[in-house]
Backbone:
């Protein structure tokens, strides 16, 4: 039997439903032509408030199968770093690699790496020559990925400028493993997987057994969306505070700028002038949130095709800042 409150809620919902449905239809009609023109795009989900206003997978494995999120993994590792700090496993962003995880520093490491801070690693400002791009193959084929990264020459002062390098995030992931006593997989599942109700399957490990910190994680588009909602809502999900709101705020403060896209970069997340918070992965994998517009977005794309800032990634940004941001 309905009481007065439940009857009122049901009546309000009945009146609201046509408006919600019209808004969803309008959003779909705005977005669909744009994604039809992007043959590299596999799947896209858009959530406004609590409502999924667009969810389609015109290509690829679909909305419920895990996709390689590539360098969006860097943003996930950054969230795990924030949790390790909140739990007291790491003293703070100014803690140095030499105090957090001295065991991972090789005897012949580049002078100064012990003094690199967690913030230097989070913001890709370690100053070390990168392991991405032309150095990537030699790095992942080496016998020790952490050692290889920490033996790169210093080409900038730590904390000075962004040098995009997956090796830097891999060192951070190894440091988190040592500091917490848990693998990145265990951390990801306990910090994000169980609280968000998402599955996080095992992914690539290096020759020493450290999970790849900065690449190769796999999530379904729906799982990616839940992380976007977490970022949008200040670390909350489903009414629960999953991550420290202070860490989320700190993550969204610009610390440096990408020399490639020109986007600002916080603690593992790209930041746009329009207000989007973005995790970006090779091929066009995107986890995006826009707190002011109450938006959360997940996009997966062909993981084997490039997505340069002046090419496909630029087209995805036009999609986010055009039909997604302005519709509804």
Residues:
């Amino acid at each position: 039997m309905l009481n007065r409150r439940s009857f009122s809620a049901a009546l309000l919902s009945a009146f609201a439903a046509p408006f919600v449905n019209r808004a969803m239809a309008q959003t779909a009609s705005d977005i669909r032509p744009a994604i039809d023109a992007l043959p590299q795009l596999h799947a896209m989900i858009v959530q406004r408030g609590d409502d999924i206003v667009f969810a389609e997978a015109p290509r690829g494995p679909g909305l419920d199968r895990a996709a390689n999120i590539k360098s969006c993994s860097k943003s996930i590792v950054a969230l795990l770093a924030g949790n390790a700090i909140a739990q007291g496993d790491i003293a703070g962003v100014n803690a140095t690699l030499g105090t957090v995880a001295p065991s991972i520093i090789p005897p012949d490491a580049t002078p100064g790496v012990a003094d690199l801070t967690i913030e230097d690693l989070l913001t890709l400002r370690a100053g070390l020559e990168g392991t991405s791009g032309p150095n990537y193959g030699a790095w992942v084929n080496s016998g020790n990925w952490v050692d290889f990264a920490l033996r790169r020459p210093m080409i900038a002062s730590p904390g000075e400028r962004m040098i995009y390098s997956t090796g830097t995030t891999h060192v951070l992931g190894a440091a988190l493993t040592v500091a917490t006593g848990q693998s990145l997989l265990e951390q990801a599942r306990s910090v994000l997987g169980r609280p968000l109700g998402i599955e996080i399957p095992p992914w690539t490990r290096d020759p020493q057994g450290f999970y790849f910190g900065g690449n190769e994680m796999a999530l379904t588009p729906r799982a990616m969306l839940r992380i976007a909602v977490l970022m949008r809502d200040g670390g909350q999900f489903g009414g629960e505070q999953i991550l420290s709101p202070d860490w989320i705020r700190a993550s969204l403060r610009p610390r440096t700028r990408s020399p490639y896209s020109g986007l600002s970069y916080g603690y593992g997340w790209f930041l746009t002038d329009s207000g989007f918070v973005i995790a970006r992965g090779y091929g066009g994998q995107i986890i995006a949130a826009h707190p002011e517009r109450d938006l959360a977005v997940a996009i997966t794309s062909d993981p084997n095709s490039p997505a340069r800032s002046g090419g496909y990634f630029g087209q995805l940004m036009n999609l986010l800042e055009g039909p997604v941001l302005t519709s509804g």
User: Anything to note?
Assistant: Confidence is low (pLDDT under 50) at residues 4-9. The longest helix spans residues 4-36. The CA atoms of residues 169 and 214 lie 5 Å apart. The first strand starts at residue 41 and ends at 48.
